[in-house]
């Protein structure tokens, strides 16, 4: 087989060796009569599918980074092992996508040079393992973290227009090796089949924008106000969560609401704590090793005050931002203790921010007493009741009677036959569509969505008109003065037409030139 013009024997040999794992020159290849068989073509098709499979997983891996802190916490509760598993995920994904990408590029270059695609058996085994690993990752995602499928749907509202342009560009580049293969193959049926599949795919891509919707395709003057920020357990990227330092850092980030979790000690003192056990965010294993596995509510307030609620933050580094904290903040973090609800209410009152909280655990046998004790602390604190946002559903009617000024936030969508008007809802960002957010906004219902950490997600919800978002990254979202992207519909239409026309002309040119 003669090399096509512009493809030297040395270059072809260098491409063939890593793909076939054999140092064979072009002359030896010709002498041996090596050529691409149907079996080789099937392995190339499998390579292409594995590449697309890993590419889709890479997209999912980037999307789920917004929620990965929840996964880290889940693993800690199960295994008592803290690790930033997002790094493991990204490194493994990068290795898989790099490997399949390099093999695919080698195969396409070999096809352009007119050389056989003799994939080595080692690569075949590794490709099968790659496909199995990615399939296992998707299966695990579907079983243990099914809500991330909804996250992917939300992400398409932010990335859809750009994914379309990128896919058109990729298919356009694929026209060159495809044309080379079509002109070289002797099978008329295969030639016609490949052309029909390619044309059908391109037509579908050219018409895809008809089905692409994004809330950020709008005019500048239609953009809703920027959503308010709710500090998830304060500012947990800058200070230990659910501490007074975290509350103050959240205030510095211009948050309007401090979101936290409340438990009640054995002697009736409400305090801030998210986990039912104290092991993740305190040194309870060192101070009370025999009681470390007990529920947080089993400790009295005197015992809780002996615990260090800040050093874990510096040791485990739950977020990458911990490494860049100034020395003063590190010293302050190391001194943090578990705050009582009364202390948090006083700090919120002085900072003039609202406080929103869950009362946990909901299934406790003495939960009604927890509600009464918590209400008593709120009423005694002197904080304006309109600054208190009440999340717990249990005994809500009692709360309305004892503290009528408290604002009630519901963790569900409004019902069709709602007896009492719902003014505030607090939901996962995956559970509300852009259309529902707009409708709630028109009906003057405040919508808070959680947990929103990535600027792309914040931008989509901003364009949708959400009232506020709960975030771990208040210091990041504070700096956003505008959504990441905002396109008028006419501008997007022009981009769509230009991309389609240019790609069509280049594809025609590729087929003509390769002939």
Features:
515 residues, TIM Barrel, 2 domains, nine-stranded mixed sheet, 54% helix, elongated, glycerophosphodiester phosphodiesterase activity, glycoprotein, PLC-like_Pdiesterase_TIM-brl, hydrolase
Number of DSSP strand runs = 9
**Beta strand %:** 5-15%
From the 3D coordinates, which CATH architecture of the largest domain would you assign? Alpha-Beta Barrel
Evaluate the radius of gyration.
29 Å
Q: How many domains would you count in the coordinates?
A: 2
Q: What is the CATH superfamily of the largest domain?
A: Phosphatidylinositol (PI) phosphodiesterase
Q: Please identify the structural class as seen in this structure.
A: alpha/beta
Task: Give the CATH level 1 class of the largest domain.
Answer: Alpha Beta
Determine the number of helices (DSSP H or I, runs of at least 4 residues).
Answer: 20
The CATH topology of the largest domain turns out to be TIM Barrel
* Cα shape: elongated
Mean pLDDT: 92
Give the % helix.
Answer: 40-55%
Unreliable stretches (pLDDT < 50, length at least 5) are: 1-6
Could you give a short account of the major beta sheet? 9 strands, mixed
- Provide the succession of SSEs: HHHHHHHHEHEEHHHHHEHEHEEHEHEHH
Cα end-to-end separation: 17 Å
GO molecular function, one term: glycerophosphodiester phosphodiesterase activity
Membrane topology: Multi-pass membrane protein
Subcellular location: Membrane
Main location: membrane
Description:
InterPro entries: GP_PDE_dom, PLC-like_Pdiesterase_TIM-brl. This is GDPD2 inositolphosphodiesterase. This protein has 515 residues and is of the alpha/beta class. The chain has 2 domains: 7-145, no CATH class; 228-478, Alpha-Beta Barrel (TIM Barrel). The chain is 54% helix and 8% strand. It has helices at 9-20, 26-32, 38-63, 68-79, 85-112, 121-144, 147-184, 188-207, 244-252, 284-287, 301-304, 311-316, 327-334, 341-351, 367-381, 396-402, 434-442, 455-464, 474-477, 489-514; strands at residues 228-232, 257-264, 270-272, 354-359, 388-390, 407-408, 424-428, 446-450, 468-471. Strands 1, 2, 3, 4, 5, 6, 7, 8 and 9 form a 9-stranded mixed sheet that branches. Helix 17 (434-442) links the parallel strand 7 (424-428) and strand 8 (446-450). Helix 3 packs antiparallel against helix 5, helix 3 packs parallel to helix 6 and helix 9 runs parallel beside helix 14 (341-351). It is elongated, with a radius of gyration of 29 Å. Residues 1-6 have low confidence and may be disordered.
């Amino acid at each position: 087989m003669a090399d096509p013009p512009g493809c030297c024997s040395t270059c072809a040999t260098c491409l063939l060796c890593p793909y076939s794992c054999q140092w064979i020159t072009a002359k030896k290849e010709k002498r041996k009569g090596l050529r691409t068989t149907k079996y080789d073509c099937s392995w190339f098709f499998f390579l292409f599918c594995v590449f697309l499979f890993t590419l889709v997983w890479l997209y999912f891996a980037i999307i789920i980074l917004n929620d990965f802190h929840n996964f880290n916490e889940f693993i800690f509760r199960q295994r008592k092992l803290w690790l930033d598993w997002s790094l493991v995920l990204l490194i493994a994904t990068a290795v898989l996508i790099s490997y399949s990408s390099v093999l695919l590029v080698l195969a396409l270059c070999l096809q352009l040079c007119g050389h056989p695609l003799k994939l080595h058996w080692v690569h075949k085994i590794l490709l099968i393992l790659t496909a199995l690993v990615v399939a296992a990752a998707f299966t695990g995602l579907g079983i243990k973290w099914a809500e991330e499928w909804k996250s992917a749907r939300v992400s398409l509202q932010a990335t859809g227009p750009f994914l379309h342009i990128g896919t058109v560009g990729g298919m356009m580049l694929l026209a060159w090796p495809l044309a080379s293969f079509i002109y070289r193959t002797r099978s008329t049926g295969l030639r016609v089949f490949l052309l029909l599949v390619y044309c059908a795919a391109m037509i579908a891509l050219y018409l895809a924008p008809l089905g692409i919707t994004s809330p950020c395709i709008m005019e500048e003057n239609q953009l809703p106000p920027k959503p308010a920020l709710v500090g998830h357990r304060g500012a947990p990227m800058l200070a230990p969560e659910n501490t007074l330092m975290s509350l103050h850092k959240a205030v510095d980030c211009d948050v309007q609401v401090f979101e936290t979790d409340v438990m009640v000690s054995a002697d009736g003192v409400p305090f801030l704590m998210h986990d039912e056990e104290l092991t993740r965010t305190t040194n309870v294993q060192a101070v009370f090793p025999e009681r470390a596995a007990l529920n947080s509510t089993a400790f009295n307030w005197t015992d809780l005050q002996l615990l260090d609620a800040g050093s874990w933050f510096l040791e485990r580094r739950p977020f990458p931002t911990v490494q860049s904290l100034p020395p003063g903040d590190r010293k302050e973090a190391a001194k943090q203790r578990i705050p009582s609800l009364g202390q948090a209410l006083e700090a919120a009152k002085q900072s003039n921010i609202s406080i929103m909280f869950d009362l946990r655990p909901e299934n406790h046998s003495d939960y009604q007493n927890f509600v009464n004790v918590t209400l008593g602390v709120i009423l005694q604190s002197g904080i304006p009741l309109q600054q208190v946002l009440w999340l717990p559903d249990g005994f809500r009617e009692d709360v309305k009677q004892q503290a009528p000024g408290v604002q009630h936030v519901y963790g569900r969508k409004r019902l069709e036959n709602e007896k009492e008007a719902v003014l505030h809802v607090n939901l996962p960002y995956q559970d509300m569509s852009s259309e529902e957010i707009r409708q709630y906004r028109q009906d003057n219902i405040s919508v808070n969505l959680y947990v929103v950490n990535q600027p792309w997600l914040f931008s989509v919800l901003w364009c949708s008109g959400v009232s506020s978002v709960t975030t771990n990254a208040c210091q990041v979202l504070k700096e956003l003065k505008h959504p990441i992207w905002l396109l008028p519909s006419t501008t997007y239409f022009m981009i769509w037409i230009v991309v389609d026309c240019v790609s069509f002309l280049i594809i025609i040119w590729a087929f003509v030139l390769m002939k």
